[in-house]
Amino acid sequence: MANTTKKTIIMFSGELDKAMAGFIIANGAAAMGDDVTMFFTFWGLNVLRKSEKIPVKKGLMEAMFGWMMPRGATKLGLSKMNFGGMGAVMMKKIMKDKNVNTLPELVASAQAMGVKMVACTMSMDVMGLSKEELIDNLEYAGVASYLGEADEAGVNLFI
Amino acid sequence: MAEIIINARGLQCPGPIVQLFNQSKQAGSGDVIKIEVTDHGFTKDVQAWCKKTGNELVELLDQGGVIYATIRKC
Question: Which residues of B touch A91 (CB under 8 A)?
Fold first, then answer.
């Protein structure tokens, strides 16, 4: 492919609409032949959680975070008009009717096209999320890795 | 020279260009890819895709809400 360039995307938010925006851009960029690296930090890590409950030994605060945060890409709410989850249900119905890819489909498609996904280990520690609770094929790193990749990228987004 | 036909009707962004990319990886140089898309944004997107990936956009038609693009892999 001619003109291969790099994109980096910081996935900070844990809402359905924002995560979809990030993954649509990631899929599009990969389809344009770009190298894409997505860094998941803070609430963005929830997008990568497995939907099933994984038994992991945690302290009280970590366990509370675990209970209160959405468990994975299918459980996210909307950043606007969520109405306690009803908004997200309606949005998902509309998107299904209009044949828009679901967030889990976009995640799988991005991984299949070689989009690199990196989980921030500091955020994982703060939020009490372990590797076992996150989906497979991730890398684990910190801010230096992100900066190193961002230096090589022509586009860098914070979502 | 092979000809690859992709029916991406009904797919929303980024479905059509993802399909186009995946099929173009299978194709050899000089192969022709024909894709049919109903997402309106594809007219602009396929031009940007061809420019970026260095492939040739041979034909681009919009007939009755369906976009027909013919691309030659370079």
Answer: none
Pairing of strands B56-63, B3-8: unpaired
Distance of CA A105 to the CA centre of its chain: 12
At residue B1, the pLDDT reads 80
At A123 the pLDDT is: 95
For the stretch A134-156, pLDDT in tens is: 999 999 999 999 999 999 999 99
What value does the mean pLDDT of chain B take? 95
Q: How far apart are CA A158 and CA A49, in angstroms?
A: 20
Q: What is the complex's ipTM, to 2 decimals?
A: 0.86
- Report the CATH superfamily, name and number, of domain B3-72: TusA-like domain (3.30.110.40)
Whether residues B54 and A3 touch (CB distance < 8 A) is answered with yes
Q: Does B13 participate in catalysis according to the annotation?
A: yes
What one-character-per-residue DSSP string does A111-156 give? HHTT-EEEEEHHHHHHTT--GGGBPSS-EEE-HHHHHHHHHH-SEE
If one looks up domain A6-158 in CATH, what number appears?
A: 3.40.1260.10
**Residues from chain B contacting residue A113 (CB–CB below 8 Å):** 18, 21-22
